[in-house]
Amino acid sequence: MLGAPGAGKGTQAIKISDKFNIPQISTGDIFRKQIKNKTEIGLKAKGYIDQGMLVPDELVVDLVIARIEEDDCKNGYILDGFPRTIPQAKALDAALNQRDLKLDYVVNIEIPDENIIRRMAGRRACINCGATYHIVYTPTKVENVCDVCNGETTLRSDDKPETVYKRLEIYHEQTQPLILYYKEQSILIETDGVQDSNEIFNDIVSKLV
Ligand code: AP5
Ligand code: MG
Fold it and tell me: Which residues of 123-156 are buried (b: 16+ CB within 10 A; e: fewer)?
């Protein structure tokens, strides 16, 4: 899944994961879990994430390659938020090539920056399981309580407006070039992220041939 911060990658990745019964691998979720558990990777990643910067490629790539070698990925998987730089994309291509595998599709969710600022301010995430809500579009049944695990839902530490602006700047600089990279490989699917999330999902599924 490609797309700016808040484009709806996670929202769609979970729906695709449910439909095709393949795991969603979100590098952001992996880092947030490592931060919560105060692991070495988590401690290294936290400083970057809280400033809206990307975690250095070398901290991300090995982690993802190791994850896709796990048993539950044998029938496929969805990468959510990875790759995010051209060097990450090249490292992934090389690792898949070595294993006689390839990416089947890259889904790009397109959305203007103005819409993103509004979405992020309303997003709430469960500090326990990571489930994501929106105070207007997809609120929890009980305010600030996760529907899935009853954990507390809060604003993500990197969803403060000033950090969102920084993340958008970095997205345009380092991640957006991947759209052309995958277009040239003829595996890019594009969808309009301003639509209702069910419409986006149906559009994506209709384009997976
Ligand atoms: P990550 O967690 O991946 O954050 P992100 O890319 O900034 O994207 P988000 O998770 O914020 O948004 P999303 O597109 O998943 O949108 P969502 O579905 O939640 O990464 C966090 C940080 O980790 C990075 O900044 C970086 O530091 C580090 N990192 C991660 N991967 C890395 C990598 N590969 N390399 C280096 N560093 C890395 O939706 C957003 C909100 O909108 C929600 O409230 C949702 O309910 C709502 N919403 C969704 N769809 C719709 C819709 N259609 N209509 C209305 N509302 C909607
Ligand atoms: Mg996400």
Answer: bbbbeeebbbbbeeeeebeeeeebeeeebebeeb
